[in-house]
Structures are given as structure tokens and as C-alpha cells.
Amino acid sequence: MQLKKIAVILTIAWQFSISTHAAEFCVTNSTELSSALITSQNNSQSDVIKIAIGSYTGGFAYSGSEDFHLSISGGWSDFFGNPCGQQIHMPFDTILDGNNTQRVMIIQAWANSDINISNMTFINGNANPDSAGGLEVRSFENYVGDVLVEKVAFINNKGHFNSALEISRGRKITVRNSIFAINHNTTGDGTIDLNNAGLGIYFNNNTIVNNTSDATDPGVISGLRANFHDGAGIFLANNLFWNNDGHDASFAGVNMTATESYLYNNNIDTYIGLIHTIENNFSEAPIFEGGFLNYTPTIASPEINQGRNSPFFVPVPPPFNMQWGVGITDFEGNTRVQDRRVDVGAIEAEPEEPIFENGFEIIL
What we know:
16-stranded mixed beta sheet; 27 strands; 8-stranded parallel beta sheet; about 10% helix; globular; mainly beta
């Protein structure tokens, strides 16, 4: 519990450091969120949008026209009269809902703007006959910003090619500590679609389970579809793929001489494509705690302490396979590494209290 408090304090401090250099919005209903996104498009500064806990009806849209950054985060609640005074709530407490009739959110990124989306849930999005019912981050060909999606749940979203999340272009795409569950695509082209021609894609510590497709051909993907070009790399670590229709992942564009590609410590069944470096992957049924949408592994689950920790020492300039991290907290806001080694998946299991710390028990 003490470690969780420390993590929350660090998160608030990080948010404050960004807020001092940006316009800040606190939104408590759908109208305020739409207005904040519109204002942020061209107000000549970076923007931080804090979403208070509650339910919000999509679809929301942002079309950037300036080289400033955008950060959108959920989980905020009242603190001494400020409705966004503290961020102590889980992603499931901030719901952005497409009502099964529309995409939940679309973001058009400008040339050098970074996009950060964190601590919220995209649910019931329907983009058919388009794709990405939950969230689409698109950009022009000259986009060189970074995109981070962290501690976000994508639940019951629908799309034609891909169902939940699509991110196109950018320098660096990072998706971590997020959950993708019960999403449905039509053509078998994935739940998540990431396209990169810059530095590359980092996809780690995510839980991708129970996603489906209408398609039945041998190339069906209901997990991650990754496309990378012009030497961009891909790094996948500590992800839990389970019970998805067809293949768990597809990797397109790997040049075996120019592309760096890594597949480390994932619970993964089958995938399509080539990867350079493959280590410590496995395929075993996870054991989750009981409850609807509870993807917390029990202490007996094969994911426990089977992940790959963040690099301890990173040289300058950093190589591609060291420009990643597991994050400070997991999906639920608990300390990400609790027993010296990170778990596989989006949620860290609570470690058992040691009975014999030194191998002996003293009875008085």
C-alpha cells in the first residue's frame, strides 16, 4: 500500500510538471470534453485534458493544426473543491462510451506533436464500415511525434479491419499496461493496428484476451497487427495473449538486415511474420481472479514473475532495444514490479507474504 501511495504521488507530480507549461482543462461531462478537444486544436500551446471519473458518450474528435503536445488522462476526482484535484482511480472509473453506434474518439496529430492517452476505458465503440471503434490516432506523412497509450482498457469495440485501436505513423509508438478484451473485427485484421516508419513500436505489458472476428481464413488475426517500414523496429515484451480468434499477432515489414525486432517473455500462441530475436515466450492458460472484466492473475498463474524488467542501465545514445520500460504502475495503479521481477500482462499480482523469510520460522 505504501508503494502504491508513492506511485500516485509521482504520477501527480509528473502531471503537475506538464501542467505548468500547458493549458489545462478539467472536464466533468461529454460537452466539456468535446469543447476542450476543440479548443486544444489551435490555442498555440500544449494541452492537458483531465477527465473526471464518470461516463462520457462519444464520439470525440481532435484535429491538431499546431506543433504542440496533447495529453488526455482519466481517473480524476474532487480534492478540496477541485473536481480534478487528485488522480487515484482506476481506468474502469472513467468510461468513454460509443453506445455501439459510433467510434469513441479520433485524434488527428500534427507534425511534431506528442500524443499521450492514459487511465481510461474505451467501450462499445462501433466504427463499421470503418475501423478502430475505440480510438484512432491518425496523422499526415510528415508526422514525427511520439504516441503513448498507457493504462487504457478497450472493451467491446467493433470495426471492419481492426476493432479497438489504430495508430498510424509517428516517431515512436508505445502501448503498455493496457487491456484489450471482447473486441470484434469483420475481416480478421486485428484488434490493435500499429503502423510506424520512424524509430519503431514498443508494445509491452498488455493483456489481449477473448477478441473475435467474423473471418475464418488461415490468416485471421484478433490480437496485434504491426506494420513497420523504412528500418523501423518492433519490441514486444511481457504481453498476455489468450483465447483470441486466429493468430495472436502479425508482423509485416521486417527486413532481416535493417529491422530490429524482439519478442521477449510473452504468453503467446501463434503469430505470422518474422522476428529476429525470440526469448522466453510461452503459451499457458492464465488463471485470473473471479469477477467480470477482472484480469488480475492469481499467484498460481503462469504469468507471475515471468516478465522482462526494464533496462537497468541505458547507454547514450540508447540502442533501440533499451528505449522502453514497464512503467511505474500497472493497469490498476499498483506498483509495477512488486517481487523483484515484473509479471506478464497488464496487471501485477499481489505477492504472497513470505512464511519463511530466511528459510526458518522462529516460534516463541
